[in-house]
Amino acid sequence: MTATPDRAPAPVAPGGESGPPNASRQPRRAPVRGARPLPPGGRARRRLLAAGATLPAVGLAAILLWRPGAPRNTFDHSLLVPVREAVWASGVVDGLLTALALAAFALAGCVLVRGRGRAWVDGGAVLLLVGAPLAASGPFAFGVLVWYAGDPAFSGSATTLLETVRADIGPLYGPVAAGTVLAGLGTLAVCVGLWRADRVGRVLPVALAVTTVLVFAVPSGRLTDVVQALQLLLVAAVGATLLGVREERW
Known about the structure:
Elements: H1 42-66, H2 77-80, H3 84-112, H4 118-149, H5 155-167, H6 170-197, H7 203-217, H8 222-240
Helix pairs in contact: 1-3, 1-8, 3-4, 3-6, 3-8, 4-6, 6-7, 7-8
């Protein structure tokens, strides 16, 4: 009967554990960058931000297409008196929705873009947050102006007031123009960040950037309302993509 040779002991890996010689060099799965458990209430916050970036933009688009009250940028007293309540109400709602839509869009961009393109989105968000209250002040200020100037009891003096405002429009619309420019530049910067990150596809940021440029390029009038409404619907589409963000990246 042939004796069976003793089996050589298994080599000991560094650290005292037995195993194959390359056991300690087995590749480990790298952790996902930015991955973390969903914090308490994270899903609710995500939905809240998605609603804040979507609903105000859709509401503004509806106001632009519906255009309640007097025509755009009119200071004709005879046209403003019959619709003073509608102009005031739409001015308050327009200003509030403008501030909410711009601020929520800035935050949505920061949530969507965490890596490549983040510098563009962060810079654009700053411009949007600064421009939001300035751009929102215009509709509200005009609504308050029309509320008092449209009072039939002040028809003579109100007409003079409106003509004075039309002749010296700077104090009324100067801050609005500055806020609109800042918001436009911020939107373009966020579009660049979204395009580089490819978080919402490539078509949506390009379309939003094109409509943003067209808002400043087309002549003021009904066409401007249509282009701006399309821009706001694209902003709403970006906000809606927040509902598809992976929870571990929230």
